[in-house]
Every structure is written in structure tokens, then in C-alpha cells.
Amino acid sequence: MPNLLDLQAIAHALSGHVSQGQVLAPGPGHSAGDRSMSLKLSDTAQDGFAVHSFAGDNPIKCRDYVREKLGLPTFKPNGARHSNDNIDKIVMAIAAAQTTEIKKIVATYDYTDENGTLLYQVARLEPKSFRHRRPDGKGGWIWQKSERAVLYRWPDILKNPDGTVFICEGEKDADRVAGLNLCATTVAGGKWTQDCIEALRGRDCIIFEDNDETGSKKALDAATAFYGVAKTIRIVRFPDLPEKGDVSDWLDAHPHNDDKPFPVQRRACSQFPSTLAPPSDRTRG
Predict the structure, then answer these.
(1) What share of the chain is helix, strand, coil (3-state, %, to 5)?
(2) In this predicted model, what pLDDT tens digit does every residue of 234-284 receive, in sequence order?
(3) What does the alpha-carbon distance between residue 216 and residue 207 come to, in Å, rounded to a whole number?
(4) What Å distances lie between residue 257 and 180, 194, 211, CA to CA?
(5) pLDDT for res 1
(6) Nearest to 167, CA basis, from 125, 197, 211, 128
(7) What is the pLDDT of residue 96?
(8) Nearest CA-CA partner of 142 in 228, 23, 42
């Protein structure tokens, strides 16, 4: 019986998932959500694995595609193959890397639809990086982005239709602000899709700017995206923060403000009401 850990590692490398003892994944040239190819580990196969294309793709092309994704050298015209021992070592190295990565997940953030049904998660890893995964419907995960993007903490925002929405750069900050009994949100990877923008139509939006060049750009990009959609838009800059500091750092440094958060917004922000000029003509004070 094939080692499940090996299969999970291979599935990760091929952007697929494990089902019934095999990997289902997109074949060469197929879209990320496609499952046109299957792979099974095999002691008798010359490559150490057997590949089948449900789409009728060239089997040699599929095997070479898999070899490339697993870090194996391309098949040589003289028929030389790497031994199964070498293949096993490479597969196990991938498995070990996958295991290490999973152990380093330090937080997960659920993105749900308006009814609270989980659509996808953002997993935060240590050292700091982020990966997306979505349920496979069988109790496992597909480590890919969802085709549908939604606001973080969307149901909470819908429960408070008149509440001001505080927009943060990341999920950690949104959770921290929401803990102050405020409407807080963000979007995965800072990518504001039209659906996410429309979800905030007519709302008063306050954007918290992280204290670095990237944070400044993301805040302005968000304000530009909301122009003509949100009722009002403000960007808040926090004083005396270190480089890359954020709203959570500000709250940590000013714990006495937890019950009256963000008084700085009245003097360190710019407002973008819908009556102002187009975004390209705006300046921030």
C-alpha cells in the first residue's frame, strides 16, 4: 500500500489532492482546478509511478511533466532511467518538506460565505508566509486558491449594516480590531475583487495603513477601489510606529485606548467623499 505521506507530498507538488490512494491533479497545460490526470505509486513501474490522463493527453508528456514537478531530470532519449531508489529519495524529500511546512502553521483564517459556510482558509506559516487552501469535501484540503473571493469576517459585517467598516491589511489585525466590538475586515493577499468592493457599497470605510511603503500603497489602492462605491473613505496613519508597524502594534503600545480606539483618525487621515475628484487627482494630507 502506498505511503499516504508520499502521496500528499506529490499532490502538493502537482497542485492536486489525494483520493482513494492516488493523486488527482491538473495535467500539463490544464487549468489549476482541473483533475485530468491521476498518479499512483508503483513498485513495478519503471518511473516509480504510473500516470493516467483522463483527457487523453500523451502519456510520455504526462510522465515528463510529473518528473519536472517532482524535481526529477527529464527522460533521456537513450532510455536511461533513474532508479526507483533515487525516485523514492526525491519523493521522501518532498514529503519531509511538506511535513515541516505543516508543522509550521501558526494560524489559520476562515473565509466564509454570507451564511457562514467555509469557502477557503489562509494559513500563516512560520517563517512568515501565507498559503491558501480550500476544503476538498472529504475532510481534507486542496492547497489552492478558491475561484470565489469574499471579505474576511463577512457575516459579521452583514449583521451590522450601518456600522463603520475598519479595513486592515491582514487577518490578524482584522481579528484584533473586531475584538473591540467593531466591524473589521480584509481580503486575502490584498486583492480587492469587484465582489469584495461591492460588498462594502454605501458603507463608511476606514483603512488602516501599515507603516511602510507597501502599506501606504495598499491603503491607497484600497481607497481608490472603493471610490464611488463606499459612502466615505478615510486612511488612518498611526504615529510613532516602527517600520512595518500596524494597528495591532499601535494597540499594544496604547492599551489604555482599547475602550476608545483610534482617536488618531481625526487628525491623521484623509477623507475621500464621493464628491471629490477622480482618484488619480487626489492627494493625501
Answers:
(1) 35, 20, 45
(2) 999 887 888 999 999 999 887 766 555 554 443 333 333 333 333 333 333
(3) 10
(4) 10, 34, 19
(5) 37
(6) 197
(7) 53
(8) 23
Fold exhibited by the domain 154-281: Dna Topoisomerase Vi A Subunit; Chain: A, domain 2 (3.40.1360)
8 Å CB contact between 67 and 45: no
Q: Phi first, then psi: what are they for 45, rounded to 5°?
A: -70, 145
Q: What is the pLDDT of residue 264?
A: 41
Q: How far apart are CA 232 and CA 151, in angstroms?
A: 18
Domain ranges of the chain: 4-103, 105-142, 154-281
Assess whether pLDDT exceeds 60 at residue 45.
Answer: yes
Q: Indicate the residue type of 159.
A: K
The beta-strand segments (E) located in the chain are 17-19, 22-25, 37-41, 49-53, 105-112, 118-125, 129-135, 141-142, 165-167, 183-185, 204-209, 232-237, 269-271
Cross-strand pairs, 129: 125
